[in-house]
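Q: I'm writing up a methods section and want to include an example of the input and output format. Could you take the sequence below and give the corresponding predicted structure tokens, formatted cleanly so I can copy it straight into the document?
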Amino acid sequence: MESQTLYRVKKEDLPKLEKLLVKCFAHDPLYCKLIPEKETRERLLPELFKCDLTEFIETCEIYSDSEEMNSLLVVSDESEPYNPLTFYLTEAWASLKTDEYLIKEDPSLKTLWNFMRGRDYLNSRWTDQLHQEERLHVIYLLAVDPDMQHHGLAAILMEEVIHYAQEHHLMVSLETHNPDNVPMYEHFGFKLFGIVQKHFDLKQYCLIREIQ
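A: Here is the clean output for your methods example:
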């Protein structure tokens, strides 16, 4: 995906984005299930998001509304060619580093076990059922600094994704673990494709926006 409107995030921006993600997802339903203890979650999230962003900068496109970086969009353009070896090595490295952090911070292995059970909430594997490579997959969108919410930043990011998808005739897919977000996505033309619920009392709402 390319954008002339949004700010393309650089490697040197990642530390600032790590802090933004921690602020945005400290009370996220998924992470509260995976890491129930608040103190453990506070220790782990910075390292987990650092690992995520290191992977995403190599395999996805990362944008923000501006250089101020009050919001975050991570999108994977499934229609673009990629090097499978590089992709899978990067993914494997990120997985190993994540497991290392989980074991280090919680030697009881309870958190590691939760992440193993929660893989289906984390890996977007449900998109395999779409059988559609002409597609954008949005990984992070509603990561908006709590102090900057209700300023239309999420809408700016979403409208840019939709504009690009329409221009290039692409489907858009995403997921959310917050049922309150579903009507907002439906407002932008998304429809519910399915619901994932495995091992936890938590639903993942899988949404798509058809090729226009």
